[in-house]
């Protein structure tokens, strides 16, 4: 008992000290390719990474950034000369992307100074993307010089048969080059045969609605307004007669589905505290769509005989008034 009290006391002291010294430290969150590969298609579908799930370092603000790089080398096994860090930036359309590499001048600063340069938004933390280039033997090599004419693009691959989106890597492309020049590389990334036809889309934003547009292969990357940190999604070209077999035959339809899907729990009015069943619906479903799905689940012939009532999550009871028949446009209004 005494041991436990002592331990709790020590813990309290430690937390108190941490709080008192918080202003001396910065949290640095470092995202890597491995994080993108792990999260995209599982935890997230849009943008590139959830920063709350990447490695974070608590670093004294006074520490020179060059010393921090040594910490990173210890943690990830990537020697300092093979590390290149990018700052993230929030765009006007709310997308959050790697924006530019740190300059040598910035790398010569302290962690605290760098945090002030980097963001006005996430005041307490510095978010970075660690770029590591691998040679033919999969060992790190020094990052290639980045010129103004080069753009860093990130690639996601979509499989309409499996309804699966995954991160397959990133490439530097020439701003004045055309998509045709990288098709071979993309097919390799996805494990396709060289003769396979592929379609490219740019993932632009997802709030409040999804915007994902076809990329014209005849235009240069610059003419398509692609810039550092942009995301290109690609897939096999699906002939029209085969497309009908798939629920979401292309990237925009799949991203729209993911953005609007909603799992809804249904309870019988007599037993408002326990779930009867749940259905995956879309926020865009109409009143008729919703009751039709419920009828199918219950094995009823006439969906118009179903009455729905919204749930009060505070009292765990149904709301006093049921939803009027066709009284709302979409599931999101229910």
From TrEMBL:
Transmembrane regions listed in the UniProt entry: none
EC number, as in UniProt: 3.4.19.12
GO BP annotations listed: proteolysis
UniProt keyword terms in alphabetical order: Hydrolase, Protease, Thiol protease, Ubl conjugation pathway
Domain Ubiquitin carboxyl-terminal hydrolase 7 ICP0-binding: 83-334
Domain of life: Eukaryota
Any single Gene Ontology cellular-component annotation: nucleus
Coiled-coil region list: none
GO molecular function, a single term: cysteine-type deubiquitinase activity
Family: Belongs to the peptidase C19 family.
Protein name per the record: Ubiquitinyl hydrolase 1
Species of origin: Opuntia streptacantha (Prickly pear cactus)
Phylogenetic classification of the source organism: Eukaryota, Viridiplantae, Streptophyta, Embryophyta, Tracheophyta
């Amino acid at each position: 008992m005494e041991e436990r009290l002592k331990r709790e006391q020590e813990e309290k002291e430690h937390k108190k000290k941490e709080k008192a010294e918080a202003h001396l430290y910065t949290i640095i969150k470092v995202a890597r390719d491995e994080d993108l590969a792990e999260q995209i298609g599982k935890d997230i579908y849009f943008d590139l990474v959830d920063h709350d799930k990447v490695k974070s370092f608590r670093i004294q603000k006074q520490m020179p950034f060059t010393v921090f790089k040594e910490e990173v080398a210890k943690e990830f096994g990537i020697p300092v000369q093979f590390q290149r860090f990018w700052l993230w930036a929030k765009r006007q359309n709310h997308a959050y992307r790697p924006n530019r590499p740190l300059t040598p001048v910035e790398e010569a600063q302290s962690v605290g100074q760098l945090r002030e340069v980097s963001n006005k938004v996430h005041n307490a933390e510095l978010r970075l993307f660690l770029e590591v280039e691998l040679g033919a033997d999969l060992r790190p090599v020094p990052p290639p010089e980045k010129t103004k004419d080069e753009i860093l693009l990130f690639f996601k691959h979509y499989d309409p048969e499996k309804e699966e989106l995954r991160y397959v890597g990133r490439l530097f492309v020439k701003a004045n080059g055309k998509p045709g020049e990288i098709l071979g590389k993309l097919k390799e990334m996805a494990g396709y045969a060289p003769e396979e036809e592929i379609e490219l889309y740019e993932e632009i934003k997802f709030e409040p609605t999804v915007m994902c547009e076809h990329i014209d292969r005849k235009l240069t990357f610059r003419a398509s307004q692609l810039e550092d940190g942009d995301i290109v999604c690609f897939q096999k070209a699906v002939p029209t007669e085969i497309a009908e077999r798939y629920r979401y035959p292309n990237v925009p339809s799949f991203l729209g589905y993911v953005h609007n899907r909603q799992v809804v729990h249904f309870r019988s009015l007599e037993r408002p505290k326990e779930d009867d069943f749940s259905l995956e619906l879309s926020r865009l479903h109409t009143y008729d769509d919703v009751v039709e799905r419920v009828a199918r689940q219950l094995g009823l012939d006439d969906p118009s005989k179903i009455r729905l009532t919204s749930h009060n999550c505070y009292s765990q009871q149904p709301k006093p008034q049921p939803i009027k028949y066709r009284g709302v446009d979409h599931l999101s209004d229910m």
